[in-house]
Design goal:
By secondary structure, the protein is of the alpha+beta class. The protein is built from 3 helices and 10 strands, in the order ββββββαβββαβα. A hairpin with a 2-residue loop joins strand 3 (21-30) and strand 4 (33-38).
């Protein structure tokens, strides 16, 4: 590919750029509990729990995705001003993913689907997807960014962290 800068032709190499999936994960918490939904008929991790999750769509912002996911996956309405960045996880396994974990400080409606339950943050289900479990642990330890799988020693368990459980108790 050639581009021009003034009258001089400059050769520009076009390199393959990595494409990653961008996940938006909602942290809906109240009274030291977090809303998790059971995966059903997805072909991956069916029967395991995770927070309400969706993928960034073309021409959509992360906050717009959060609003869409809250309605579609959690059955609640949220506003942009109630969404804040909690954690970012770069998953380098497989083809790569980046997960934006967003804390939601308020919403309208109540999720009554049979595939979702409120779990104590200190007692998450054993059949939870590993990636969100690790992200929640890291967030509870005060980390705002992490890589999955982790390339260092694991920190203290989520149950020993206290900051985020208190911060979003409503």
């Amino acid at each position: 590919m050639m581009s021009r800068a003034g009258d001089t032709a400059i050769a520009a190499e076009v390199q393959h750029r990595r494409r990653v999936v961008v996940d938006v994960i909602l942290l809906l918490m109240r009274n030291r509990r977090i809303l998790l939904r059971e995966r059903v008929n997805t072909g991956y991790g069916d029967g395991a729990y995770e927070p309400p999750t969706g993928q960034l769509a073309d021409q959509e912002t992360i906050v717009e995705t959060a609003i869409r996911v809250a309605s579609a996956e959690a059955g609640v309405a949220i506003r942009a001003e109630n969404v804040s960045l909690a954690h970012v996880m770069h998953d380098v396994s497989g083809s790569g993913r980046i997960g934006f974990y967003l804390a939601v400080s308020g919403w309208e409606g109540e999720y009554i689907s049979p595939d979702a339950r409120w779990f104590p943050v200190r007692n998450l289900p054993t059949n939870m997807l590993d990636r969100p479990r690790v992200a929640l642990r890291n967030y509870g330890e005060g980390m705002r960014f992490s890589t999955y799988p982790a390339f260092g020693p694991a920190g203290p368990a989520l149950s020993s962290a206290s900051g985020w459980q208190d911060a979003f108790s409503a």
